[in-house]
Amino acid sequence: MNHAPGIDHITLCVENLDVAEFLFTKVLGFEVLWSARDVGSDRSSMDTVVVQRGNAKVALMQGRDKTVKSQINEFIEKYGQGVQHFALEVDDIDAACREWEVQGVKFSGPVKEGRDGFGPLKQRFTYPLFPASGLFIELIQREHGGETAKTFVRSTVESLYKDIERDQASGLERTIIDYDSIPIPVEKKPLKQAS
Q1: What percent of the chain has pLDDT over 90?
Q2: Is the alpha carbon torsion for 85, 91, 97, 103 positive or negative?
Q3: Residues 6 or more apart from 3 whose CB is under 8 A from it?
Q4: Residue 56: is its pLDDT beyond 70?
Q5: pLDDT digit string (tens) for 22-51?
């Protein structure tokens, strides 16, 4: 894929956002880039703080249960606290999505478009990478023309959140590809020894 300049951010699901923020800002030397409270829907939501050190960005998320369990809290219950997804920055999200879809990749919803203080951006999530895994990929396109977005857009985060919440409510477990219909090599190759 020629569309990926690199990792945009990594997202962690945490039980206590204040503790996680303290760890990253006071101990690990990150600075708060963006934060928002009660992002999601009237059914459930999350609080989030995005921290940055150099080019490394980490989004910290804590769930808020309302009428249903937050997808963040459900993730933690199933997999424990930790990495929920990583975001690949692409220069053309539509081309990247078309390329991946030809290979059988499934996305949890359409491309979301929004705008923040730095300019427009687009985002899209895949389904989890592996069966019984919560880890998925986000594609994100931040640069449009002469503008560059450096943080997140509340409206697109809420829209992406609702896609995950919709799938959570259906109870259907999906993966990024259909492992049963795509010919995947099953032969184990011997590992090379380190020298």
Answers
A1: 50
A2: negative
A3: 90, 91, 92, 93, 95, 96, 99
A4: yes
A5: 999 999 999 998 898 998 888 889 999 999
In this structure, what token pair is assigned to residue 139?
């594609």
The pair of structure tokens assigned to 66 is 């309302």
* Contact between 142 and 154 (Cβ < 8 Å): no
**Can you say how many angstroms the Cα of residue 121 is from the centroid of all Cα atoms in its chain?**
14
- Measured distance CA(79)–CA(99) in Å, rounded: 30
- For residues 20 and 12, the answer to whether their CB atoms sit within 8 Å is yes
Residue 134 in tokens: 């919560």
> Structure tokens of 156?
């697109």
- Closest-CA residue to 142 (of 157, 114, 158, 122): 122
Q: Is 122 helix (H, G, I), strand (E, B) or coil?
A: strand
For the beta carbon of residue 156, count every other beta carbon within 10 angstroms. Answer: 20
As a residue count, the chain comes to 195
Residue 14: which pLDDT band, with cuts at 50, 70 and 90?
Answer: very high
46 pairs with which residues across the strands?
A: 39, 63
Token pair listed for 170: 């259906």
DSSP code, position 164:
H
